[in-house]
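Late entry, written up from scratch paper. The run itself happened at the end of the previous shift, but nothing got recorded in the book at the time, so transcribing now.
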Amino acid sequence: MKRKLLVLIPLLLSSLEVPAEQSPEQRGLEIATEAENRDKGFRNFVADLTMILRNRQGEESIRFIHRKTLEVEEDGDKTLDVFRQPKDVKGTTILTYSHGLEQDDQWIFMPAIKRVKRISSVNKSGPFMGSEFAYEDIADQTLKKFNYKYLGNEVIDGHECFMLERIPAYEYSGYTRQIESMDTEIYQPRKITYYDRKSALLKTLKFSGYEQYLGKHWRPNQMNMENHQSGKTTQLIWANYEFQIAVTDLDFTQNSMKRTR
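Output as recorded:
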């Protein structure tokens, strides 16, 4: 009897399904998917931004922006950025329809010429209003935009983070890859490192001062982008977040850009 049991045990063990170990690509996609799912359902929000541009010598210029964001199911978000100050950029408006693998749609309204111009798809790597952010950086970073690979964990400012390599899957990106360090508790980025088309280190974006809204959605109070090649930096200070207000699709049209002040 004992001998029969010894023969049966290996047979029973071999019949059990043992889950295959995840590849770094599968794990990376799983983490990125979880992050996107956790942030669904905010519907819309508005916020005020202070943008501080600094050159290599430390000289500053400051701009004030009002942003509206509309969540879009099964696609990227829509955003409307309206520059309030200083006088030379006042009234300039950027409208962005973010997508996955398709090219984002972006338009700019300039009060001086009083018309809306489409931003070329091949120009998304250009600087956003003279800042160290590119036009592709200000679009919604939807899941489908990248291929992912889990690289391990690291600690940033006391926060445990997943490290994900993101390879742009869309055309005309200014980056060959990005390394995102995502907080393991709130599933929001603490740092993103960007590499240019020659795979050289280009810039680093750091996030801080996260606060929770609606009991679920986390947003930073500060974002600091440093360009390692030019020595320039851009700081974004976020304030006055408001969620689920009276915002509709009609607030995100080319006609609305001309009316927004």
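Confidence is low (pLDDT under 50) at residues 1-18.
(Scratch paper discarded after transcription.)
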